[in-house]
Specification:
single chain, 101 residues, mainly alpha, rod-shaped
């Protein structure tokens, strides 16, 4: 019984070593702020009345992995012609962003 357990542990260790050796390097780059600037304030909700002629559009974006991604989305949304305000609510639920429920 002990020999079987030792054999199982050795095979599991060898399998993990093989996976670790063959795995590609992580490709996620940590978000940095150029020049040490303060992070962009990203509102989580829009407050106030909707101006006449304006439309409110709500998107669900899967995939953000951190608050830095929320800052990037916010900057891009504000850069779109005609967008007057934007709010990004990052709930940090990575299960939802990876498709798992």
């Amino acid at each position: 019984m002990k020999a079987l357990l030792v054999l199982l542990l050795i095979s599991a260790g060898a399998s993990l070593a093989w996976i670790g050796w063959r795995a590609s390097d992580p490709d996620h780059q940590a978000h940095t702020l150029e020049g040490g600037a303060d992070p962009t304030y990203v509102p989580a909700v829009l407050i106030g009345e909707l101006p006449d002629g304006a439309h409110l559009i709500d998107f669900i974006v899967d995939g953000p992995c951190c608050d830095g991604c929320s800052q990037s989305l916010y900057k891009v949304a504000l850069a779109v012609q005609g967008v007057q305000a934007a709010a990004i609510h990052y709930d940090g639920d990575l299960r939802r962003s990876s498709g798992q429920r």
